[in-house]
Amino acid sequence: MPQGWKQEVKKEGERIVAITWxxxxxxxxxxxxxFVARNPRNKEQxxxxxxxxxxxxxxxDMTNGANGVSPSVVTKLTPVKTLQ
Length: 84
Hints:
A two-stranded antiparallel sheet has the order 1-2. The protein has a two-stranded antiparallel sheet with strand order 3-6. It has no helices and 6 strands. The chain is extended and about 55 Å long. It is mainly β. It has one domain.
């Protein structure tokens, strides 16, 4: 994790159900980061719940699309065929 970043991990039993990253992003800056996770076995898609918190206390929920109905960040999963 880059210097100055912090994270909080929320678990239910042994399963990670949420990760919150904390970082200071100055006006005009762009930050990109990645992580690795295992896809669920019995799902067709993942809908990511994303909220951006600002230093003034306001929160921007980016989970829903512009119309407020469709999720804005969806990963469609395709099963991999295994050799028998």
